[in-house]
Write a structure and sequence with these properties.
- By secondary structure, the protein is mainly α.
- Helix content is 59%, strand content 10%.
- It is built from 15 helices and 7 strands.
- α2 runs antiparallel to α5, α8 packs antiparallel against α11 and α9 crosses α11.
- About 1% of the residues have low confidence.
Length: 360
């Protein structure tokens, strides 16, 4: 079964040389959510393990039967509302015309289910949108951070270390207080990732007919109790059995109407996929919101961010160097120092020379 994901694995690799980069747990969370959405898209299109998208009982044979099945999948199916359980073999499946209590009859209200046709394309679109802030940051960066770190993110066995430290320090000292725009663009990318994570929740809710927000809690509650009850909340959004109306000309040229009952195997996977995506999307939005709030605090309060960076450093000597440098730095300079600390192997030597350079 895992052969289904072979094509996707070719584009997801953790091997190879690492490179110095500006790391963000917020953007990393968005990237993980993108991969999960792509996996969901691959899963719902794995027809080998799901079977046919739709199977209908039509009363016809061969080409006519196949034509009706294809039409029902393209034109969408529907279920009925407020059916009497005595005349309903499956939830939402029953007569279109229902009797009234005081005599007569009327056509019952129906719910049309067409969104399951769009699930793979919508999931693909959502994965692209989740990746957009990451792509935007790479466009802004264009290898700038990797260049100014001067290969100090790797251990060297030659004499290039001192020369690289001097080059990086001189650039930092000469460009002090000029990196605010670079750091603010990164912060805006994080804000965009948070907006996308929230907007994606409302988009999915609209796509599923306004049922997504309550679908997750009710589905989890149902799966934790009696999962054999046919009248379960999972069938409200992704019905397993639905109806379809087919019109054709009779022998005399009159229009004949046929009522078909269809089984939708695809919805078995769709419902489980969206239960998992509900959990993933909710946690992604929460994590992105908390991280963005912390980053905004660091942006607006210099004393907090300076104390935080000093706290992260272990060596007392390095702490002392930072305490002399940070008062002269704006948010952009602090941003570079923060990520230098994470990427540089020789950060202790670098910060000592940076203090001397800035004091000049």
């Amino acid at each position: 079964m895992f052969d289904v994901f072979d094509n996707l694995k070719k584009h997801i690799s953790t091997s190879g040389a690492t490179r110095a980069s500006v790391y963000s747990l917020l953007l990393f969370t968005s990237k993980i959510c993108m991969f999960i959405t792509l996996l969901a898209c691959v899963l719902v299109t794995a027809k080998t393990y799901i079977g046919d998208n739709i199977n209908c009982i039509t009363g016809f044979e061969k080409q006519e039967h196949k034509a009706i099945e294809t039409y029902c999948f393209i034109a969408s199916t529907f279920t009925m509302v407020d059916l009497n359980p005595g005349v309903s073999p499956h939830p939402g499946v029953g007569p279109i015309i229902r009797p009234l209590p005081h005599g007569g009859s009327e056509e019952g209200e129906r719910i049309v289910h067409a969104y399951y046709q769009w699930v793979p394309m919508v999931l693909s679109l959502q994965a692209v949108i989740y990746y957009f802030p990451i792509w935007l940051w790479h466009t802004f960066d264009r290898g700038f951070f990797e260049a100014i770190i001067c290969h100090l993110d790797k251990v060297h066995i030659t004499d290039d270390v001192s020369r690289n430290i001097v080059s990086s320090v001189k650039f930092f000292g000469s460009s002090l207080s000029t990196h605010r725009g670079y750091a603010v663009r990164f912060l805006l990318c994080e804000c965009l990732a948070f907006v996308i994570s929230i907007g994606n929740l409302f988009f999915t809710n609209t796509f599923l007919g306004g049922e997504f927000f309550k679908f997750g809690p009710s589905a989890l509650k149902y799966l934790g109790t009696n999962s054999t009850d046919p009248n379960n909340p999972l069938n409200e959004i992704f019905p397993k059995v639905a109806k379809c109306t087919w019109h054709k000309f009779g022998a005399s040229g009159t229009i004949q109407t046929f009522d078909s009952m269809c089984v939708l195997p695809l919805n078995i996977v769709n419902e489980k996929t969206y239960i998992f995506l509900w959990v993933v999307y909710i946690f992604t939005a929460i994590i992105c919101g908390v991280l963005l709030l912390l980053h905004l605090i660091l942006f607006f309060f210099p004393a907090v961010r300076n104390a935080y960076l000093v706290y992260l450093v272990r060596k007392q000597e390095t702490k002392l160097h930072l305490q002399h440098i940070l008062p002269k730095c704006n948010y952009g300079d602090w941003f570079l120092l923060f990520h230098f600390r994470r990427n540089m192997v020789y950060f202790r030597e670098w910060i000592a020379q940076a203090r001397e350079e800035i004091q000049k």
